[in-house]
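Reopening: structure tokens for the S-adenosylmethionine complex, inputs below.
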Amino acid sequence: MPAERHIRRNVRAHDGIAAEYDAIHAELLCPAEQQRLKLKLKWAVGAIRTESVSGNRPPHALDFGCGTGNLTRLLIEMDFGVTAGDVSTKLLRRVRDKLGAPAGMLETMRLNGYDLAGVRDGTFDLVATYSVLHHVADYAKIVDELARVTRIGGVVFIDHEATGVQWSDDPGWKALQAIASASAPRTSWWRKLLQPRRYWRRLRRLINPRYQSEGDIHVWPDDHIEWDIIDSSLRKRGFEIILCEDYLFPSPYYPQEVFEEYKDRVRDIRLLVARRSSPGERSGK
Ligand SMILES: C[S@@+](CC[C@H](N)C(=O)[O-])C[C@H]1O[C@@H](n2cnc3c(N)ncnc32)[C@H](O)[C@@H]1O
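Re-run output (same inputs, fresh job):
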């Protein structure tokens, strides 16, 4: 699908779910995931070595693909000034309405979906993105852009992206999927009747099993983000990978004992944190 059509479809899909985004993605906002995310963000913030953090200027972060402000809120709580960027204007409006952050702490930016044109090199101390790259067909270009706008000593934080487990035949992963889909909340029949859109989506999925209601998503065996490409794109821009952690997503739809049983053998999500070194550090001076 040509990039423009792909992006338009993502914008439409996310504008369409903006009002109910938090309800649809309750799993991302559940206490276990929020606790994990906060801890990891704090770790990444502690790894920043830009001048602003050691000097007077308040640190500045980009939340790329901010949705309704999941990361933005956590970063503002950590005293970052945040630029929250998204392709969906309706989601950006939700961020402003929901967070009502103090002046100077939050600005929103409408993204074009291809690049960060108009954003100067080395603008941010922290560039964070959560559950976004698999929505972007040309994710390598986006990773390069995220790297470009990070300051020397700054950190790129990429979280909630799939590991190969998600497109493998791993029996543990399959068992977890079955458990999650059995315990996820069901829509009542009368609600379904009121929402003919749901039938239309089901029909589209019958015609094309890869059809997703949240736009174009790349999590298939032959179409997914490739970590080698991300790593080498970051290294080319002078980044050092300082954390690469695969973990089992703490879904609220797994009973606790199931999570405990599987957490060390099925690691379906990756967090990658990389820091931009100075040319001096790179040449070993
Ligand atoms: C699953 S949501 C994650 C949102 C948010 N980061 C969170 O933690 O809830 C994916 C987000 O990516 C955005 N998105 C989709 N395509 C994009 C693109 N090409 N460039 C930037 N953002 C995009 C969507 O509008 C949506 O907000």
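The chain has a mean pLDDT of 90. The pocket of S-adenosylmethionine is lined by residues 7, 10, 14, 25, 28, 65-67, 70-71, 86-88, 91, 111, 113, 130-132, 135-136 (CB under 6 Å). Marking as resolved unless the reporter disagrees.
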